[in-house]
Known about the structure:
Layout: H1 3-15, E1 18-21, E2 24-27, E3 36-38, H2 40-75, H3 82-107, H4 109-114, H5 126-135, H6 139-157, H7 168-192
Antiparallel strand pairs: 1-2, 2-3
Helix pairs in contact: 1-2, 2-3, 5-7, 6-7
Amino acid sequence: xxxNAHLDGLRQAFAxxxxxxxxxxxxxxNQKGAPFRVSSLERDRFVGTFTKRVRYGLWSLVPATIxxxxxxxxxxxxxxxxxFQIAMWxxxxxxxxxxxxxxxWAWGAPSRELKHRLPEGLALTREExxxxxxxxxxxxxxxxxALAGVGLIWxxxxxxxxxxxxxLVWSIFGAGIVVFAGVQTFRKWRFxxx
Length: 194
Protein backbone atom coordinates (compact mmCIF):
# COMPACT_ATOMS: atom_id res chain seq x y z
CA UNK A 1 0.00 0.00 0.00
CA UNK A 2 1.47 3.34 -1.00
CA UNK A 3 1.75 6.23 1.40
CA ASN A 4 -0.85 8.19 -0.61
CA ALA A 5 -3.35 5.32 -0.44
CA HIS A 6 -2.78 5.14 3.32
CA LEU A 7 -3.26 8.91 3.58
CA ASP A 8 -6.51 8.65 1.57
CA GLY A 9 -7.79 6.06 4.04
CA LEU A 10 -6.89 8.27 7.00
CA ARG A 11 -8.51 11.28 5.33
CA GLN A 12 -11.72 9.33 4.72
CA ALA A 13 -11.80 8.05 8.32
CA PHE A 14 -11.41 11.63 9.54
CA ALA A 15 -14.05 12.95 7.13
CA UNK A 16 -16.49 10.25 8.30
CA UNK A 17 -16.77 12.18 11.57
CA UNK A 18 -18.77 14.79 9.61
CA UNK A 19 -22.25 13.70 8.55
CA UNK A 20 -23.98 15.65 5.79
CA UNK A 21 -27.14 17.48 6.86
CA UNK A 22 -29.48 19.70 4.86
CA UNK A 23 -27.90 22.93 6.11
CA UNK A 24 -24.27 21.95 6.63
CA UNK A 25 -22.54 19.16 8.51
CA UNK A 26 -22.71 17.61 11.96
CA UNK A 27 -19.37 16.80 13.58
CA UNK A 28 -19.16 13.98 16.12
CA UNK A 29 -15.73 13.18 17.52
CA ASN A 30 -14.97 9.57 16.60
CA GLN A 31 -18.50 9.42 15.13
CA LYS A 32 -20.03 9.10 18.59
CA GLY A 33 -19.34 12.31 20.50
CA ALA A 34 -21.72 15.21 21.05
CA PRO A 35 -22.96 16.66 17.73
CA PHE A 36 -21.73 20.11 16.67
CA ARG A 37 -23.07 21.88 13.59
CA VAL A 38 -20.38 23.12 11.19
CA SER A 39 -20.59 24.78 7.81
CA SER A 40 -19.41 23.19 4.60
CA LEU A 41 -16.43 25.55 4.56
CA GLU A 42 -15.46 24.65 8.14
CA ARG A 43 -15.68 20.94 7.35
CA ASP A 44 -13.51 21.35 4.25
CA ARG A 45 -11.00 23.38 6.27
CA PHE A 46 -10.86 20.76 9.03
CA VAL A 47 -10.35 17.92 6.52
CA GLY A 48 -7.72 19.90 4.58
CA THR A 49 -5.80 20.84 7.72
CA PHE A 50 -5.90 17.25 8.99
CA THR A 51 -4.65 15.94 5.64
CA LYS A 52 -1.80 18.46 5.55
CA ARG A 53 -0.69 17.75 9.13
CA VAL A 54 -0.80 13.98 8.72
CA ARG A 55 1.02 14.18 5.38
CA TYR A 56 3.80 16.17 7.05
CA GLY A 57 3.85 13.62 9.87
CA LEU A 58 4.06 10.67 7.49
CA TRP A 59 6.74 12.23 5.33
CA SER A 60 8.76 13.24 8.39
CA LEU A 61 9.14 9.53 9.19
CA VAL A 62 11.61 9.17 6.30
CA PRO A 63 14.20 11.77 7.42
CA ALA A 64 13.73 10.73 11.07
CA THR A 65 14.54 7.12 10.15
CA ILE A 66 17.56 8.20 8.07
CA UNK A 67 18.83 10.33 10.97
CA UNK A 68 18.36 7.37 13.32
CA UNK A 69 20.34 5.08 11.00
CA UNK A 70 23.16 7.62 10.66
CA UNK A 71 23.31 8.12 14.44
CA UNK A 72 23.31 4.38 15.06
CA UNK A 73 26.13 3.76 12.59
CA UNK A 74 28.11 6.72 13.90
CA UNK A 75 27.65 6.16 17.65
CA UNK A 76 27.42 2.36 17.84
CA UNK A 77 29.13 0.79 14.81
CA UNK A 78 28.88 -2.75 16.26
CA UNK A 79 25.36 -3.79 15.26
CA UNK A 80 25.56 -6.95 17.39
CA UNK A 81 26.13 -5.08 20.63
CA UNK A 82 23.37 -4.70 23.23
CA UNK A 83 23.88 -0.93 23.13
CA PHE A 84 23.05 -0.88 19.42
CA GLN A 85 19.91 -2.97 19.95
CA ILE A 86 18.68 -0.78 22.80
CA ALA A 87 19.44 2.43 20.88
CA MET A 88 17.75 1.11 17.72
CA TRP A 89 14.52 0.07 19.47
CA UNK A 90 14.45 3.24 21.58
CA UNK A 91 14.93 5.36 18.44
CA UNK A 92 12.18 3.52 16.56
CA UNK A 93 9.86 3.88 19.55
CA UNK A 94 10.60 7.63 19.72
CA UNK A 95 9.85 8.04 15.99
CA UNK A 96 6.57 6.09 16.19
CA UNK A 97 5.42 7.83 19.38
CA UNK A 98 6.21 11.23 17.87
CA UNK A 99 4.07 10.42 14.82
CA UNK A 100 1.26 9.13 17.04
CA UNK A 101 1.32 12.39 19.02
CA UNK A 102 1.08 14.44 15.80
CA UNK A 103 -1.70 12.20 14.47
CA UNK A 104 -3.84 12.43 17.62
CA TRP A 105 -3.27 16.17 17.84
CA ALA A 106 -4.46 16.57 14.23
CA TRP A 107 -7.39 14.18 14.77
CA GLY A 108 -8.62 16.13 17.81
CA ALA A 109 -8.35 19.60 16.22
CA PRO A 110 -12.09 19.97 15.44
CA SER A 111 -13.16 19.01 18.97
CA ARG A 112 -10.67 21.48 20.46
CA GLU A 113 -11.88 24.26 18.18
CA LEU A 114 -15.57 23.49 18.68
CA LYS A 115 -15.50 22.95 22.45
CA HIS A 116 -16.87 26.45 23.10
CA ARG A 117 -19.89 25.90 20.85
CA LEU A 118 -23.16 24.62 22.18
CA PRO A 119 -23.71 21.01 21.05
CA GLU A 120 -26.89 20.16 19.15
CA GLY A 121 -27.58 17.13 21.32
CA LEU A 122 -26.07 14.36 23.39
CA ALA A 123 -23.30 11.98 22.47
CA LEU A 124 -24.38 8.61 21.11
CA THR A 125 -24.99 5.84 23.61
CA ARG A 126 -22.74 2.80 23.57
CA GLU A 127 -25.41 0.78 21.81
CA GLU A 128 -25.91 3.43 19.11
CA UNK A 129 -22.15 3.71 18.54
CA UNK A 130 -21.79 -0.08 18.27
CA UNK A 131 -24.67 -0.29 15.81
CA UNK A 132 -22.96 2.28 13.58
CA UNK A 133 -19.60 0.50 13.86
CA UNK A 134 -21.12 -2.89 13.00
CA UNK A 135 -23.00 -1.40 10.06
CA UNK A 136 -19.63 -0.50 8.49
CA UNK A 137 -18.24 -4.04 8.75
CA UNK A 138 -19.40 -6.70 6.31
CA UNK A 139 -19.74 -10.41 6.97
CA UNK A 140 -17.27 -10.93 4.14
CA UNK A 141 -14.62 -8.89 5.97
CA UNK A 142 -15.18 -10.88 9.15
CA UNK A 143 -15.00 -14.14 7.20
CA UNK A 144 -11.74 -13.05 5.57
CA UNK A 145 -10.31 -12.20 8.99
CA ALA A 146 -11.15 -15.71 10.24
CA LEU A 147 -9.67 -17.20 7.08
CA ALA A 148 -6.50 -15.15 7.64
CA GLY A 149 -6.20 -16.64 11.15
CA VAL A 150 -6.44 -20.17 9.73
CA GLY A 151 -4.03 -19.25 6.91
CA LEU A 152 -1.52 -17.90 9.43
CA ILE A 153 -1.48 -21.18 11.32
CA TRP A 154 -1.23 -23.16 8.09
CA UNK A 155 1.60 -21.04 6.71
CA UNK A 156 3.60 -21.14 9.92
CA UNK A 157 3.10 -24.91 10.22
CA UNK A 158 5.32 -25.31 7.15
CA UNK A 159 8.17 -23.55 8.98
CA UNK A 160 7.80 -24.51 12.65
CA UNK A 161 5.94 -27.03 14.78
CA UNK A 162 2.88 -24.96 15.73
CA UNK A 163 1.73 -27.45 18.38
CA UNK A 164 4.87 -27.55 20.54
CA UNK A 165 7.37 -25.15 22.04
CA UNK A 166 7.61 -21.57 20.86
CA UNK A 167 5.69 -22.43 17.67
CA LEU A 168 2.59 -22.74 19.82
CA VAL A 169 2.45 -18.93 19.86
CA TRP A 170 1.42 -19.00 16.18
CA SER A 171 -1.44 -21.40 16.90
CA ILE A 172 -2.65 -19.27 19.79
CA PHE A 173 -2.40 -16.07 17.75
CA GLY A 174 -4.17 -17.58 14.71
CA ALA A 175 -6.88 -19.12 16.90
CA GLY A 176 -7.29 -15.76 18.62
CA ILE A 177 -7.95 -14.10 15.26
CA VAL A 178 -10.54 -16.76 14.39
CA VAL A 179 -12.27 -16.43 17.77
CA PHE A 180 -12.23 -12.63 17.57
CA ALA A 181 -13.77 -12.71 14.08
CA GLY A 182 -16.37 -15.23 15.26
CA VAL A 183 -17.36 -13.14 18.27
CA GLN A 184 -17.62 -10.00 16.14
CA THR A 185 -19.71 -11.88 13.56
CA PHE A 186 -22.12 -13.01 16.28
CA ARG A 187 -22.32 -9.49 17.71
CA LYS A 188 -22.97 -8.02 14.24
CA TRP A 189 -25.67 -10.62 13.59
CA ARG A 190 -27.29 -9.78 16.94
CA PHE A 191 -27.31 -6.06 16.09
CA UNK A 192 -28.69 -6.80 12.62
CA UNK A 193 -31.62 -8.68 14.18
CA UNK A 194 -32.79 -5.58 16.07
